[in-house]
Amino acid sequence: MADETLINKIHELSDLELAALICLVAKEHCIIDTEPVVIDELVQELELVFSNLSFASPVSSLTLEQIAAKVFGLSYAVVDCSEHTSLDDFAHAILTVEGSPTRSNSPVRTRQDSYFLNTPAFQSISRSPVSETFADNKTIPNVIIAKNLDEAPKQVQIQALELMRTKRIYTRTSVQNAPKRFLFIALLAGGDGPRLTKHLNDHMFISHFHDPEDGFPNLEEMFDDTGSISSVVKKSPRLNTEFMTSPRVSATEIEQLVQLSEQATVSIEVKAYQQNIIAFLRVHRAVASGISAPATVLFDKLAKCLAPLHNLSYATPSLIDLAARKIYPHRIQIVKPENERSMQWGSDLDAVAELLEGTTTEDVIEDVLGSSGAETPL
What we know:
Elements: H1 4-11, H2 15-26, E1 30-34, H3 39-50, E2 76-80, H4 87-94, E3 96-97, E4 114-116, E5 138-139, E6 143-147, H5 154-166, E7 168-170, E8 175-177, E9 183-189, H6 198-203, E10 206-209, H7 217-220, H8 237-243, H9 251-263, H10 268-283, E11 287-288, H11 293-309, H12 317-327, E12 333-334, H13 349-356, H14 361-369
Parallel strand pairs: 1-9, 1-10, 2-4, 2-6, 6-9
Antiparallel strand pairs: 3-5, 7-8, 11-12
Helix pairs in contact: 2-9, 9-11, 10-12, 11-12
Pfam family, one: AAA_lid_2
Protein name: magnesium chelatase
InterPro entries: ChlI/MoxR_AAA_lid, Nucleic_acid_metab_PIN/TRAM
């Protein structure tokens, strides 16, 4: 069981911070979805979640209490993907350069800055995308935020999958390894069901939709009473040494949650309930292509990761329900009316189309978890 101080910290986290914590505990990667109109604000919010410093006022007036580490205190890089993004662009965006004297001398924005594609680059198909002129002191940050990854070409998405699976990226002169704590976030805007390439989509651990009405708490802290953004302190080695404090959720606490999740148990009755949910999803008339086996493995893993966050040493039916709502939304594909199962037995196409109209992945999951789906154990 986690100590009460850690549990209180977890209860104070926002939905985005909690999603990130779950992935760090599981050592997996995620999809975060939102409305298209607020995706830029969501990028800024995530930057503040992972940044090492909290910015509230100009550096000259900051006190030690005002400058505090954010939630996780991890290095990060942001890449803005589009149909013109090449492997060169992708690799340059995620490799940060340590000790770069000025931003103008660096081909990428470092750690606390975002990389945004300005001009289309040639479409490279090489596995070694980084140019020889790129600095030798480059590293992969702890967190990569890939904005609009679904719009990137297939080869870029395959490169992202390779990075997640092997935790390394190849340059022309070396192989760069990701740090021990490594999180890849695919930031998408608007849509339902799978939007990434098949294998990349199935490799993603969870998907989370951030409702704009839930706000951006860290971003809002940067606004003063007049509504203008306060001055932002840029990260530098001297500033870190003098001012930086511990993150709200430390690496030690994350490791404690990892150990507790590995020790979490699932009773036979709850396991049967979990398997029934999977079976109901696979035979649901609105689901196309079924439910993959890797998703089942991740389903079980998430249920155990959620237990210590709720100060439990075992998974409950309610945690199984919560896990299903995070594991399957990006994996379920709604069937086309002409391919719906009952069409084999002479159903009317118009009637089937009317039945399926407006059906979303969330509707399917709630249907399976509801009274007409798997029976919840008492």
